[in-house]
Specification:
22 helices; homodimer; about 550 residues; alpha/beta; about 15% strand; 2-enoyl-CoA Hydratase, Chain A, domain 1; 2 domains
Chain lengths: ~550, ~550
């Protein structure tokens, strides 16, 4: 399958698979997959099955609903088709895909499901799934990401996770974890359910907690709407506010350079590294919430988050051999701090809430990116508050101690703001500072006294906020060696190592999905029993029986 | 490499790699690996490196110290060699091993490390590691399992995890998890450490929390002994008690039947299943602690635990294609209950404490076995208390409702005892009952009122204690279908699914090691970058450079 560049930028007028409709405080996201609309040639998206392209549209819709529709308090996910809700990830697509594409695909769909849950929990835009027909595999996993699952009680509508019996793989979008850890399905029931290809319907589905409510098919649409309206009525979103629109993110790709308004990405193919340079704001922040709304998508924190998010997706999907992301910044740290202060002051504004939540999700996307992250804190950089989270997200950071011979730039400093102490937790539920200082939890509170200070390299080292602080003489060699060394290691080994070291401390649904379930799925995606010439995933639909190596490992 | 049967039964007089010596309340376990003593032909165990055979001896020593030496309150792990503590798992052995052997090897070594930590925490036999020379890879992971790590401060002794840079794999025995979750090493320090093949020594090793204490080499032996003596002095183990001896576990393997004193294993190769039938006690329990000590290793709960443990290891290592373990029992549930009551009454006795801790570990070994577990509760069975934990550990259970036509056996019943409510937690820290009823936590307390009752199938179903309760007419078909269906699924898919469904709820060091780190390691063990013809693990020592697929996944 040819690996054409994948572009994650879209908008409702270009959707091929989803219809977005609004009815007062309720939005409807209706799945009607265009069979011939696959992202790649070679497969047909039959039975409302999906590929990455379908999920890119879903992710866009979830994002737009938050920013463009403050009046929406509930979102119903449903199918346009009669007997089929969604049959999950397209199997022929999976069979044709490279290992890294499968893994990337599963990661992105998981991030989209988590964005749905984040919208329900924190944007108060609650997702409800209304199932008429079969919700199989990824179809049921989409339902599991919703807060309520309504199922037609018609003797045939059913939910299922048939991956293991049919394909010899696992549900790849958090299904196993959400069964036992979100819906608290008893593990013996989950065992039966996940080994029964035809799934479970009716009363048993409800008794086993697989769905919440059974509704006669003739009343399904009406009851769904009633439930959605009552959920929407409990939302704190402002019914009469005006949303902001999210225009297409502008970018220019010229050779190995990608230019966004506030971000430049430069790819160094020899060192298999991409430098991401984030630019701080050009001017002081606007005065109040009204002015933020006036700037809309051009408001610096929102514009930068969108650009960083798009750049990460571009690099993940299209630059798979670029294994290291070098994080840099340029600008005035005091201005970044002023923007953070504005976000804190206006935190009760719905749009500001969305912007902060979006930074949280964007930073989480960084945390789970299978790339080595090296942060460079140099003279002229502006790693303050929100931007300092990138330094904390890095596997390792270097801060230049002092000035550089022949340069006018002042010595590098970093700044802490309220954004480092709560609003942007990692997937493990802790702030990056708390994750960093598990051995000295009091340190986090002590660091609050540093808010508002410009912290130089020596102090940053003392406070444990950066890894190494070479001076001008050592800087270039030390940084070059670190990046080159990384390029020499096994990419798989690095992915596994980083996934283990990045998430110390407590585990959550989210870390279980990314660090545990995903690892098992990656393993199984490599096993001949699934993806070998005689594996179940390869042979599905051929009429031939898979041949399994029977050894248990 | 020929796959000869592996026997886990050993004793100190047969050790080839470890020396066990006692000095009052301190035991010394000294590693002196016999290069030519590998479990399989084809590799030499150079530089105090180990294979499964070395770890089988270590596991045996850890177990014996608990039961045979109540007077020992501290155990020192050290090396006989001058400049090398331990260089970890033997790389040539790994390169020659099949995937399932590598996975089995890592699982067993992890269980042994956890047994060491369990001894320190609960048997109050505290492990201290005294490192003179290089502790690399699995060598340092062994140190990480100890409560204190002492390092010679001689300018060359160092600790390292060179797996990623040298072999393109991960530390396979919990190293990454223990770094950041047990020793709370900062993740950027951990990142540097795990990518630096030569490791870290001296002050940096201590400042980064990689070791606890630096000791000049000339004083290492004396200081180690002093520290061990002071730790031993704080133990609650009885200095003047007499241990019991653990004779060789007797078993007879005849064709597909393995007979132990209280356990029979029958292998059904066609259905790829092994039936494990545990026998209840023959008679009422002894009266008091003195009588338990008198029976020693013949005391039914201890004898059965040892037999079950040995049977599981035999099946794991030597019957890899037998993918389902069917758990059955036979005997008088009231007698099992009486034994449990005795264990509860005598819980302050050191030997009883060891027996209960051993059941805890044995049941955990069952939990992490990569086999489908189906429990059958039939007329004549004795699934009470401790033995009922096996039913709770099963992926699914069937309980026959009523009597069987033409049989005199009374209808099956189960019984709860205090053993179901605390002493045998799973790796996630919860009892199996609490893990089962995450959706209804009050249920666990309510079930306490059932203690002492014989619970029939209808009541067990009502209480949620078993999965299905077919009657005599349906029993045979339903059970046969369940076992045959399991044999038809992909073994890898089942392993991944079960690992995800079995451990809902909180995560601990232990579940992170088995469910997260192990899954990543399994994945990496399958990747051509590690184990392909040009992979790092295959080429190690050949002088050739590994060739990596650079795509990040």
């Amino acid at each position: 399958m040819a690996e054409l560049p994948i572009d994650c930028r879209t908008e409702p007028s270009r959707y091929r698979h989803w219809k977005l409709a609004l009815e007062g405080g309720v939005a409807y996201l209706t799945l009607d997959v265009n069979e011939d609309g696959g992202l790649r040639p070679g497969y047909k998206l039959k039975l409302n099955s999906y590929d990455l392209g379908v999920d890119i549209e879903l992710a866009d819709a979830v994002q737009r609903l938050r920013f463009e529709h403050p009046e929406v308090g509930a979102v119903v996910i449903r199918s346009q088709r009669d007997r089929i809700f969604c049959s999950g990830a397209n199997i022929n697509m999976l069979g044709l895909s490279s290992h890294h594409h499968k893994v990337n695909f599963c990661k992105f769909t998981n991030e989209t499901r988590l964005a749905i849950e984040d919208a329900s929990a924190h944007s108060r835009q609650t997702y409800i799934c209304s199932i008429n027909g079969i919700a199989a595999g990824g179809g049921y996993e989409l339902a599991l990401a919703c807060e309520q699952i309504l199922l037609a009680d018609d003797g045939s509508s059913a939910v299922s996770l048939p991956e293991l019996p049919l394909l010899a793989v696992l549900p790849g979008t958090g299904g196993l974890t959400r069964l036992v850890d979100k819906r608290l399905v008893r593990r013996d029931h989950a065992d039966f359910f996940c080994t029964t290809a035809e799934g479970v319907r009716g009363k048993r589905a409800r008794d086993w907690r697989l769905v919440d409510t059974l509704i006669p098919p003739s009343r399904l649409a009406d009851e769904t709407h009633k439930i959605a309206e009552s959920v929407a009525a409990r939302s704190d979103r402002p019914r009469d506010a005006k949303g902001i629109s999210l225009p297409t993110i502008e970018r220019a790709i010229e050779g190995d350079t990608i230019r966004y308004g506030h971000l430049t990405v430069e790819i160094d193919r020899e060192r298999r590294a991409a430098k991401l340079r984030l630019n701080g704001p050009d001017a002081a922040p606007p005065a109040d919430a009204a002015a933020i709304h006036g700037q809309g998508a051009a408001f610096w924190p929102l514009a930068l988050a969108r650009q960083l998010d798009d750049a990460m997706m571009h690099l993940r999907l299209n630059e798979t051999e670029i294994g290291t992301w070098v994080l840099q910044s340029q600008g005035d740290g005091a201005l970044v701090e002023a923007y953070d202060a504005l976000l804190a002051r206006q935190s009760s504004d719905w749009l500001v809430r969305e912007i902060v939540l979006y930074w949280k999700r964007t930073l989480k996307r960084l945390d789970v990116s299978a790339r080595s992250l090296i942060a460079l804190v140099e003279p002229g950089s502006c790693f303050a508050g929100t931007l300092f989270e990138l330094v904390l997200a890095a596997d390792r950071s270097y801060m230049l101690d002092g000035t550089v011979d022949g340069s006018n730039l002042p010595a590098a400093s970093i700044r802490l703001t309220a954004m480092n102490f709560g609003p942007c937790p990692m997937g493990n539920g802790l702030t990056r500072l708390a994750s960093r200082f598990l051995a000295a939890p009091d340190r986090v509170d002590e660091l609050k006294s540093e808010i508002g200070q410009a912290i130089d390299a020596e102090a940053a080292d003392e406070l444990g906020l950066v890894t190494f602080t070479p001076d001008d003489i050592d800087w270039e060699d030390e940084v070059r060696l670190a990046v080159e060394e990384r390029a020499g290691f096994s990419p798989d080994g690095l992915t596994g190592m980083e996934a283990n070291l990045r998430f110390a401390g407590p585990e959550t649904l989210e870390t279980k999905i990314f660090a545990r379930l995903s690892a098992w799925q990656n393993w199984i995606f490599q096993r001949p029993n699934a993806t070998g010439a005689e594996g179940a995933l390869k042979l599905y639909g051929s009429g031939k029986q898979a041949k399994y190596d029977r050894k248990r490992a």
